[in-house]
Amino acid sequence: MAKAKAVKYPIIYEMRRGTWNDYWRVAIYKNNAALKKGLKAEGIVDATPDTLALVHSTASYTKKLEWGDFTSSMFATLFLSLDNMGTEILCHESVHIGMAHERFINRFKMEYGDQCGTNEERLAYYIGSVMRGLVETLRENGHIE
Ligand SMILES: [Zn+2]
Prior knowledge:
- By secondary structure, the chain is α+β, with helices and mostly antiparallel strands.
- It has one domain (11-140).
- Helix content is 39%, strand content 17%.
- Strands 1-2-4-3 form a four-stranded mixed beta sheet.
- The radius of gyration is 16 Å and the shape is globular.
- It starts with 10 loop residues before the first strand and ends in a 5-residue tail after the last helix.
- Residues 92, 96, 121, 124 line the site of zinc ion (ZN).
């Protein structure tokens, strides 16, 4: 029997989109406990006991005092664990990535404020729930696998 290949966590991917001049990262941890440890090790203090995944913009990640003072074209990191990778969570966090990108492009001049707040959080929950319902319905009816 072939020996399973050892995987070293966190697995980190640079996420580049076709026409974007910048990129974001995703860091995948083995489980939620490892995710929490990893966030703490990165100095990210806004995780709560309920945190299942988290998007951190580069500005706060590098602990810059001035919003918009980016040092690279990497605008955000999504922290995930294998425990929580369902459609709703991935969609929810994708909203935060999209918003982080919008802040990066517009240098934080947007209606939703200069950082994630309750309005963005509500939007992310709505869109995550909508996407989960959509995917489940399409899957149950054989339109997608
Ligand atoms: Zn959120």
